[in-house]
# Entry
Amino acid sequence: MTLDVVQEIRFDSAFMFRYSVREGTSAARLVDDIPEPEKIRRLTELIKLQKTISCEKNQEEIGQSRAVLIDGTSRRDRAVLKGKTEGNKTLLFKAGPEYIGTIQNITVTAADSWTLHGELTG
# Structure
């Protein structure tokens, strides 16, 4: 049922974790009868579905101009800046450090499941 709901809602992204007992909750009093390998299998299937949906949704961003708050550099390449769109998506683009701390219009040129890539809009 979870997979059906995720497919129907089509979240931009999601944080997903296997079930674990949370002390003090009603569920903590229930018997956890799901074996660990099954929890991991279910989580893997859910992550795979969400990754596909995220990629499809991010592909729709290509060609769009987005206002981006530039908050630093990429962890992998200090010559690439990173920021967040108004929709809280991470966007990477090449530019100088003088743009850090500013809001810039960036045109999305490529996308994967987790990140948008772009260029400063003229």
